[in-house]
Specification:
By secondary structure, this protein is α/β, with parallel strands linked by helices. The chain has helices at about 20-35, 85-95, 105-120, 130-135, 145-160, 170-175, 205-210, 230-240, 255-265, 280-290, 305-310, 340-355, 360-370, 375-399; strands at about 5-10, 40-45, 50-55, 60-65, 65-70, 75-80, 100, 125, 165, 185, 215-220, 245-250, 275, 295, 315-320, 335-340.
Length: about 400
């Protein structure tokens, strides 16, 4: 029987933040803990003080004092860097990790790298980084230089890691094109194949959102922000409604939600588009069963956790033809790809809704594809990768 590991996971974003990297990191910590490993999570606190808490899943979280990024960013928190290295180092010495796994290259990730080198601990990282997710919070005048600076900072940290994982081949290719030459491999974020499976439609939810039995439902789940192209979806909805009737559910909130609600009203979509705001996990699971088609409109996805959740519910997907989404959505098989153009998207909405007979075939294909992303498989690969990186590091230091 293999010795259980002591794993330190470090992330600049973690629940209560709700984004792809935060959700993945929480699931990773939970699953590694469930497997009997000792896990310590280092993440920002929502208060300006250091605190240690115990997650219900059994792992410890060292919450580092931080302050809100508002008005620059609606939910990102900046950690207090005064004495950060000393505070983190003391906690890491106490925990004695076999390996450190960072999720970002900002203050916590870069500090973890310095500590790993000083304490002779192997360190790896997962790439969740897309500058486009941050540029919307920066004045457009400096986007070009800001993007270069963000990549420089990323490479300064990640090029020094012992190993890198990424959730898609597109994410790996992106790093290689930026000159990152570390040992790398694709490991899917993984998804619980049982949690989001299709169930009968919830009548209470149908009443809550005024959904008729005979009306197809298109669903989007995520941040209502520029990179998710919800404005494109609203404009395409206006065009497609001239040919076929349907309902759109937009689940989530974000920096641009008020502007998007105004745009929806301006387009006269009050009866056809529902903004639910943020909902709890139980309602979210039911929402996938309520839907007929999933809308993957985000053009900066390195994999797409919500897309995977939807596919687990057997939903056909309309996905923008960008970055990693074509790795999940095979055009004409489990949905259709569309270009970043409201007329092209409207055409695909009409095409998929007019061929209801093909939904069942596409639904099964979504299930076939997502089976390869079973979270148990992903977590086994991560665990094996931890052991390999530790072994390789020891061999390198002894040679």
């Amino acid at each position: 029987m293999q010795k259980k590991l002591r794993i330190l996971i470090v992330s600049e974003t973690f629940p209560p933040d709700m984004n792809g990297a935060a959700i993945f990191t929480q699931r990773l910590a939970k699953e590694m803990s469930k497997r009997g490993n000792e896990v310590l999570m280092i993440a920002p606190n929502i208060r300006f003080k250091d605190e240690v808490e115990k997650d219900p899943a059994g792992f410890q979280i060292f919450r580092v004092k931080s302050f809100s990024g508002k008005p620059i960013h609606p939910y990102f928190r900046f950690v207090d860097i005064v004495g950060l290295k000393k505070r983190m180092k003391n906690k890491i010495r106490e925990f004695k990790p076999d390996i450190i796994h960072i999720q970002n290259h900002f203050s916590l990730g870069s500090t973890a790298l310095k500590i790993a080198r000083s304490l002779d601990i192997p360190i790896m990282g997962t790439n969740h980084f897309m500058p486009e997710n941050l540029l919307q919070y920066i004045p457009e005048l400096i986007h070009r230089e800001a993007k270069k600076m963000l990549w420089r900072h990323f490479k300064r940290v990640y090029k020094k890691l012992d190993f890198i994982t990424a959730p898609s081949f597109a994410a790996i290719k992106m790093l290689q094109e930026k000159g990152v030459t570390n040992k790398m491999m694709v490991i899917s974020n993984g998804i619980d194949l049982h949690k989001f499976k299709k169930n009968p439609k919830d009548r209470a939810l149908m009443n809550k959102y005024s959904i008729a039995d005979n009306l197809p439902v298109l669903l989007f789940v995520g941040r209502l922000e520029i990179d998710k192209n919800i404005d494109l979806l609203l404009k395409a909805t206006k065009i497609a409604l001239k040919q076929i009737k349907f309902k759109v559910l937009l689940v989530g909130r974000g920096k641009n939600d008020k502007d998007l609600i105004k745009l929806s009203q301006k387009l006269g979509l009050q009866e056809s588009v529902v903004f639910t705001g943020r909902i709890d996990d139980d309602e979210l699971e039911k929402m996938y069963s309520l839907a007929d088609i999933y809308m993957a409109t985000g053009s900066a996805e390195l994999q797409g956790i919500a897309v995977m959740e939807a596919m687990t519910a057997g939903l056909p997907v309309l996905a923008i033809n960008a970055i990693a989404l074509p790795e999940l959505v095979v055009d004409g098989k489990n949905g259709y790809l569309f270009e970043k153009d409201e007329y092209n998207l409207a055409e695909k909405i009409v095409k998929i809704l007019q061929n209801k007979a093909k939904w069942q075939e596409m639904s099964q294909k979504s299930l076939d594809i997502i089976n390869e992303h079973d979270i148990n498989k992903s977590m086994s690969i991560f665990e094996d990768t931890y052991r390999k990186v530790i072994l390789d590091y020891k061999s390198k230091t002894l040679s």
